Inverse folding.
């Protein structure tokens, strides 16, 4: 079984880019041609979400290595949405993409084991078939253990919230504990789990979520967590630019994947693409926005060292 | 629309007990007569989970006020499990129970809104129809805001993780920040949200998860968070007893609900009930265990002040 980060490195090298596309379907933003006629029918919406996400995958699979479906938007539609999500995960994997489910799950003891077994692993017995899952750290070290063990056993990974991209993240994450911020203390635990689970490429099965909206802390964490792969949100719609994520990478341009959701998947509605493409040609807008982000990261970060496709 | 905690108080007064039963279906623990013949069929397992949980509800609905389905075990079965979960929530509410979904969700911005809208509210447009949801605090104050607003608008509630019952919870929760532990700082935020959302009974729509396994901290938090209803895990299988939860209640025996999961739902397999009932008479074991816990709490806590049924 190939280690998660070694599969990740191979996929990133293959497409020459660390771009990660977040699949965040939202009713109000869906391109008009995809919206169901009966807007009160939750199964019709779930079908629309699935069609939208599979249409996204068709466009981006040749360009990027990883997708990150945001579970909340599928859960919003109840069991219908969860049924669509399972199809989206499967479709993504069939198209050669690695799939990170963004669920920010966690619990204690055998409940944490249930989450880990549910989501981790690209093949059965994993019910969902994801390559990785985002995980919340507040419950402490024993809550992470079942995720670490299941990830190791199944060639999967987890990304633990360390320093999140939202303004209010600092409310607890930046509190001083033992002379440093809480996020650094969480980072220390995550690094220790990464060291225990390291793959051939030098990165552990346990990575960290670190927001692009705090570039100084991102660069500082790159140094202090050398075995943690970073999942970096905050690019694009949340305001961070390529220069802000430069510090997330190692010297080879590896060690991080940079997420963009709205700015890519709803590109048809961005001022720079609206005139040219509009809602009917939404997939062309997605391709243009994806290529633009790839070029931005190549120009301004060590990811420019990656071979080009 | 009646405030969540006022509905909670009415339900607790009606049955005279603060007992909350956690619905944690696990394959290996399910009473033998309920296990599917084809143990590889995930839809058959989901059907078994639904049958088990509805059978639990049949027994406990006359005795307790609240159930707490643990989402992880349903998610473990993929979309099939989620379909069963929706039926269990509906069945519980049809039988007059309040339903707290234990999902420990959270995210930022519009994603947090999606979770809140998905789960909160006993009626449509909530997809899941729960009265309350457990929520994780690491993402900070702005991440909680959409839950607070949606809960207020829909007569629902949330329970934020403050001091959890697991041994490793102290890894971060007990770190010293500004002269006190982190959990007290999280508690301060939760109390401020409770004060903003208070119902007629004096409790806010925002409550706190505080483990029974730390009785001193539980009593201390009761004093410092006077407007927060407590959801108290850790009773029974996790080792806490009635005396440990006494400090969770106010003088009227209100302000807390005490969860037991395994010790009730799998009572047929406990040494004290196995001989008498066994797997075929599992529902009678559930009733006996529920009545025993109700009596224990009445004898040793201020919940003994509640009117008896």
């Amino acid at each position: 079984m190939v280690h998660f980060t070694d599969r990740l490195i191979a996929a990133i090298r293959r497409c020459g880019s660390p771009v990660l596309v977040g699949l965040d379907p939202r009713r109000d933003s869906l391109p008009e041609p995809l919206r169901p006629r009966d807007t009160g029918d939750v199964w019709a919406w779930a079908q629309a979400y699935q069609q939208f996400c599979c249409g996204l995958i068709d466009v981006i699979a040749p360009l990027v290595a990883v997708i990150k479906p945001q579970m909340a938007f599928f859960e919003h539609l109840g069991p219908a949405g969860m049924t669509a999500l399972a199809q989206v995960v499967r479709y993504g994997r069939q198209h050669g993409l690695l799939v990170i489910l963004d669920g920010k799950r966690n619990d204690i003891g055998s409940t944490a084991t249930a989450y880990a077994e549910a989501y981790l692993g690209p093949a059965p017995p994993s019910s969902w078939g994801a390559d990785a899952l985002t995980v919340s750290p507040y419950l402490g070290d024993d809550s992470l253990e079942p995720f670490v063990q299941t990830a190791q056993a199944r060639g999967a990974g987890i990304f633990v919230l360390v320093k999140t991209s939202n303004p209010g993240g600092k409310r607890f994450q930046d509190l001083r504990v033992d002379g440093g911020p809480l996020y650094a203390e969480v980072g220390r635990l995550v690094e220790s789990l990464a060291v225990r689970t390291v793959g051939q490429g030098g990165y552990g099965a346990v990575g960290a979520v670190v927001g692009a909206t705090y570039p100084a802390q991102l660069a500082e964490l790159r140094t202090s967590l050398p075995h943690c792969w970073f999942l970096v949100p905050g690019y694009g719609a949340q305001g961070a630019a390529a220069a802000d994520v430069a510090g997330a990478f190692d010297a080879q341009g590896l060690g991080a994947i940079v997420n963009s959701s709205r700015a890519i998947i709803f590109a048809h509605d961005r001022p720079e693409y609206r005139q040219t493409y509009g809602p009917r040609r939404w997939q062309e807008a997605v391709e243009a926005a994806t290529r633009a982000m790839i070029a931005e990261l190549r120009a301004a970060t060590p990811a420019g060292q990656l071979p080009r496709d």
In short: The mean pLDDT of chain B is 96.
